[in-house]
UniProtKB/TrEMBL annotation, chain A:
Top-level taxonomic group: Eukaryota
InterPro entries: NPG1-like, TPR-like_helical_dom_sf, TPR_rpt
One Pfam family in the UniProt entry: TPR_16
Entry protein name: Protein NPG1
Region of interest (Disordered), ranges: 95-116
Lineage: Eukaryota, Viridiplantae, Streptophyta, Embryophyta, Tracheophyta
Keyword entries, A-Z: TPR repeat
Coiled coil found in the keyword field: no
TPR repeats: 662-695
From TrEMBL, chain B:
Keyword field: Cell membrane, Cytoplasm, Membrane
GO cellular component, one term: cytosol
Region listing for Disordered, in residue ranges: 1-32
Organism annotation: Cardamine amara subsp. amara
Protein localization: Cell membrane; Cytoplasm, Cytosol
Name of the protein: Hyccin
Length: 704, 355
């Protein structure tokens, strides 16, 4: 195939190109020689060359071979080359070359000698190289690779001390560079991957005096080969190392190293920009989840290579994948500015998603989502569903930011509307089903919530832990504790033990709700054993890399246990657990809340209120602490009226943040009662009792 | 709470290098493995009755008729059941610890994984598929002793074998950025649903490690599975604008013809956590960029799969997946560009040829 093509090509060109053969200051046209070659008469063609241009046998053959090759007559070229004993020629050169070389080195002015030798060498080497190319085009890849390798072996033999930079003949260098580049490609094509790897390394680690562009090409090819061939390369041999230098241990490391080096070369202007390199690096680093490194590489790319919006968007993707949301949002704000590309769908959706995770940005995110919905038209209409989903999430998050009650319920209902709209586009998207369920649950529509929770478990085949937890929470909110426990047990069956932490905590809480504290304590004890085992069985690597998904959090366990003991009024146990928890995490509002409960239980009100206030200082929006202070003050308000307004404002504030906090409603009712506003008190107590019937054992927002 | 540590009786041997050098095996091993191969072939003959089974394992590996017969058996609705003969055969054959037989089983991993994951929501019994996948998982777990696979992301301020650096080597250790490509493997005796993606992901990692020896049909099966998993078939048609590709549009017409009924189109979408998506992308990367000789059909199929996964990652707004799939698509596009197809090893075609 290849052969045919090149024949065609050269035939097309033949009308225009009248080839000439030149040597020793003489030239002759090729037509006569070509005619003889076409008759298959190599000897005659050769002898007419030798006479016409006064050449020796090998020179004439080499010229003829090249002529045949250029004419696309590959079989002919092979026949001509096979007539030369190339190995013998190389041996002759080998004998003669080194002394000459050392002579030139010492005496200097004998350059003509040197160039003659290089000239002769090139003649032979080029002949072998063209033989390899002809074999390649004829599909005889392995033979081609062997010939090509012999070019390089010969170069090493002939020029044992290397070719002096300043004196290298350009034609010789060209042949060498070609051969260096061709060899690994041939081995690769022939399927001999180990040979290919060593050929690549030979090309890159030995001194071939390659120019920057061809070196860059080889580096890139090798990186691609390492990343994608699926063949694990043995690490480079120890011989090739300079002391203290970094040695890649596996394919991915070596490929990323090469790609980074290439990128640096581009940045320094040492090689021509090749857009595929950054794409390969993007792929490689994303596979390793190292997009923060990718972001750094993207930042280093010279201006003018990417448009700025492209750069910002890619950077934003990288930062967002690396969990650096605020950096990503900042970049997206730039690229979505009205003077840049305000309608870019991918950027809009990403911005909306990032904003939906942060209550203070949710309103901004809703704006992006709305723009995405408006722009998802025509061919991109299917992304409208994603836009709607993001709008729903942003509005739902926005509803958490304290605003008026009216505003909150408006946002909540709009959020539901958007999510409902999204599900019309993507009825099969389990994530969406889940989000819709959580949204219903937060609005205490528990029936709908449990329906979606079950649907989510079905759609994911129970493979997502949060689905199980969600269903259990919804059931607990419906006060169906034993069913919730069944779900939790089923989930535990489907979970490997290191992921069981949150489920076990849930189970302990369910036990408490069912007034079964001893079993709850038992569950916690098991959890602690799990934590210990986990710490022992994994080295630092596990904790380092899986920190974020480390589900069994020791602090949470101790704190949970402390809370459990506090509800049993085992104050000494509470103190022990709190001490343990405090060693792991010093400042935590929720822990201070439990501590306050402990003091409260021991009837020591001063330290209790101090602990609650410390909690509030740490986290100004800590609802439990607010409620606790409010409750304490309202109790005192029985006798000292002046504290009641303070309690009232604290409790109202807590309800502004979390309107479903039944304790806050209850104590607010008490405040009203002590103040003599019986009707208000009744309303509050009613709210508290209604909420008690739909209170999950953990807040729904913990699972999103 | 018993994570029963292993479900297989004889632990498989340590991992062999990718290129198995048959000549190195001793005569004794030879006869042993021959016996194993013969048993496997004979028992396969009782399951696959529609075509003749070749008499040697090397012929069997490349036999299209047998592959097709096995494929059609696997495609039956009840093929994943625990009492399925073929699953049992695949399980036993893999457990034989004979490298060539294991390759034969791996060849069908794309289809098994594809069917298994897509059938999960249908609540069919799939103990047979699970046994095969668990065997692969257990093999990989033992062969790397449960250890995570990590990569040190290089830092160019240190000199390496490929470059020099003038920057002083101030702190050798802290600069290294360790990335986990595949996290630690805990033994699993059953498929717990929350570990399902990981188990299948590891089976795919194993498949990838032998991918250079997999036949093209197997890779085509894989690409088809990916498209189903992504579940974006309906949208690919319309979303030219967001897919980073410009030139080749031929596949679109092909797909119009090939697109089946609606129900077929909608089913199959599965959750794609990173532990599953990552090995998928590595395999697709190989199909797109790592074949030793360009195979248009495989490349096109992989490209289609990539497009589906790209759209899926847009729908999930999964930044990492957007980056990875987007770069594969752009690389494919660049490869098609004629200006990138110059052969730099070609000699200059001068009119004057001189010595």
């Amino acid at each position: 195939m290849l052969g045919d093509q090149s024949t065609e090509l050269s035939e097309n060109g033949e009308d225009e190109i009248i080839r000439k053969l030149c040597a020793n200051g003489m030239c002759m046209k090729t037509s006569e020689v070509e005619a003889k070659l076409d008759e298959g008469n190599i000897q005659e063609a050769e002898s007419s060359l030798r006479e016409g241009l006064s050449l020796n046998f090998e020179e004439a053959r080499a010229l003829l071979g090249r002529l045949e090759y250029q004419r696309g007559n590959l079989e002919g070229a092979l026949r001509v080359f096979e007539g030369i004993d190339l190995q013998a020629a190389i041996q002759r050169l080998q004998v003669s070359a080194p002394p000459e070389k050392s002579a030139t080195k010492k005496k200097g002015p004998r350059e003509p000698q040197q160039s003659v030798s290089q000239h002769a060498a090139n003649l032979v080497l080029e002949a072998i190289y063209l033989k390899a190319k002809s074999l390649q085009k004829l599909g005889r890849i392995t033979e081609a690779a062997r010939e090509c390798r012999s070019v390089l072996d010969s170069v090493e033999k002939i020029f044992q001390q290397g070719i002096p930079d300043a004196q290298v003949d350009t034609k010789l260098q060209e042949t060498v560079s070609h051969a260096v580049e061709l060899l690994p490609a041939l081995w690769r094509e022939s399927g001999d991957f180990q040979e290919a790897i060593s050929a690549y390394r030979r090309a890159l680690l030995s001194q071939w005096n390659l120019d920057n562009d061809s070196c860059a090409r080889i580096q890139k090819d090798f990186a691609v080969f390492l990343l994608h061939s699926g063949v694990e390369a043995t690490p480079p041999s120890l011989a090739s190392q300079i002391e203290g230098s970094y040695i890649p241990r596996n394919n991915v490391e070596e490929a990323i190293l090469l790609l980074m080096i290439l990128l640096k070369k581009f940045n320094l202007g040492k090689a021509k920009w090749d857009p595929s390199v950054i794409e390969h690096l993007t792929f490689g680093l994303s596979l390793c989840s190292q997009t923060s490194v990718l972001a750094k590489q993207l930042e280093e790319v010279m201006p003018g290579v990417f448009s700025r919006v492209e750069r910002w968007n890619n950077l934003a993707l990288s930062y967002s994948a690396a969990g650096q949301s605020s950096a990503a949002v900042n970049l997206l704000r730039k690229s979505l500015h009205k003077h840049e590309q305000p309608d870019d769908l991918v950027a809009l959706l990403l911005a909306a998603k990032l904003c939906s995770e942060e209550p203070s940005l949710a309103a901004e995110g809703a704006g992006y989502a709305q723009r995405a919905i408006n722009n998802a038209q025509g061919m991109d209409e299917h992304l409208k569903g994603v836009g709607l989903r993001m709008l729903g999430l942003c509005l739902g998050k926005q509803a958490k930011v304290p605003t008026s009650d009216f505003e909150r319920s408006r946002l909540q209902s709009e959020s539901l509307k958007a999510l409902d709209g999204a599900i019309a586009f993507e009825p099969n998207n389990p994530d969406l089903i889940f989000e819709l369920g959580v949204q219903y649950a937060e609005q205490r529509n528990l029936k709908a919530a449990s329906r979606y929770a079950k649907e989510f478990i079905d759609a994911t085949g129970g493979s997502v832990l949060k689905g199980w937890r969600f269903l259990a929470l919804v059931l607990s909110a419906q006060q169906r504790f034993s069913e919730a426990e069944v779900v939790t047990d089923a989930a535990l069956d489907e979970t490997a033990k290191w992921d069981q932490g949150p489920l076990l905590r849930l189970k302990a809480k369910l036990k408490i709700s069912q007034s079964n504290p001893t079993e709850a304590v038992e569950t916690y004890r098991y959890l602690l054993a799990l934590v210990q085992a986990q710490r022992k069985s994994f080295g630092p690597l596990r904790t380092l890399s899986q920190m974020e998904e480390d589900k069994v959090n020791e602090f949470e366990v101790w704190h949970g246990l402390a809370y459990l003991y506090s509800s049993l009024s085992h104050w000494n146990d509470v103190e022990v657990c709190l001490k343990k928890a405090g060693e792991l995490k010093q400042y935590s509002a929720s822990m201070l809340h439990t501590e306050g409960r402990m003091w409260e239980g021991r009837k020591e009100f001063k330290p209790a209120i101090a602990a609650f206030l410390d909690g509030l200082l740490l986290d100004g929006s800590s609802v439990p602490c607010k409620v606790a202070v409010g409750a304490l003050l309202s109790e005192r308000g029985k006798d000292h009226q002046p504290t009641l307004p303070v309690a009232r404002s604290l409790l109202s504030d807590a309800l502004r943040i979390d309107p479903t906090n039944r304790k806050a409603w209850y104590y607010l009712g008490m405040v009203h009662k002590y103040d003599g506003r019986i009707a208000d008190a009744t309303d509050c107590f009613q709210a508290a009792s209604m909420l008690e019937e739909s209170d999950p054992i953990e807040s729904f927002s913990t699972i999103l | 709470m018993s994570d029963s540590s292993s479900s297989h009786d004889s632990p498989p041997p340590p991992p062999t290098t990718t290129i198995v050098d048959d000549s190195e095996t001793t005569v004794a091993n030879d006869s042993d493995s021959n016996a194993k191969c013969q048993t496997a072939i004979q028992s396969l003959a009782t399951i696959v009755t529609t075509t003749n089974i070749p008499s040697t394992i090397s012929l069997l590996l490349d036999d299209d008729a047998v592959s097709t017969a096995i494929l059609s058996l696997l495609l039956r609705p009840d093929s994943g059941a625990g009492d399925n003969n073929l699953c049992r055969w695949l399980y036993d054959t893999f457990q034989s610890a004979e490298p060539s037989l294991q390759l034969l089983v791996l060849r069908f991993v794309p289809l098994i994984a594809g069917l298994y994951l897509s059938r999960v929501p249908l609540r069919q019994p799939q103990a047979g598929f699970e046994a095969v996948l668990l065997a692969l998982y257990a093999h990989e777990t033992t062969s790397r002793a449960g250890q995570a696979l990590t990569v040190n992301i290089p830092d160019l301020s240190h000199p390496s074998i490929y470059h020099e650096s003038k920057g002083l080597t101030k702190n050798n250790s802290t600069c290294l950025n360790i990335a986990v490509i595949s996290s630690t493997l805990d033994p699993h005796g059953t498929v717990r649903s929350t570990r399902r993606a990981r188990i299948v992901g590891v089976a795919l990692e194993l498949y990838y490690s032998k991918i250079s020896r997999m036949p093209r049909e197997s890779k085509l099966n894989f690409c088809e599975s990916c498209e189903k998993w992504a579940g974006q078939n309906g949208e690919k048609e319309q979303s030219r604008a967001v897919i980073p590709t410009l030139s080749d549009d031929s596949w679109r017409e092909e797909e119009n013809v090939a697109m089946g009924g609606r129900s077929e189109r909608d089913s199959g979408r599965i959750p794609l956590p990173w532990e599953l998506l990552q090995p998928i992308l590595r395999i697709l990367g190989h199909c797109l960029l790592g074949l030793k000789v360009e195979d248009r059909e495989v490349v096109e199929a992989a490209n289609k799969a990539c497009q589906s996964l790209y759209l899926r990652s847009l729908h999930d707004i999964n930044a990492k997946a957007i980056l990875a799939t987007g770069s594969l698509l752009r690389l494919r596009e660049m490869a098609l560009d004629p200006k990138n197809q110059i052969d730099h090893t070609e000699i200059s075609n001068d009119a004057v040829i001189s010595v």
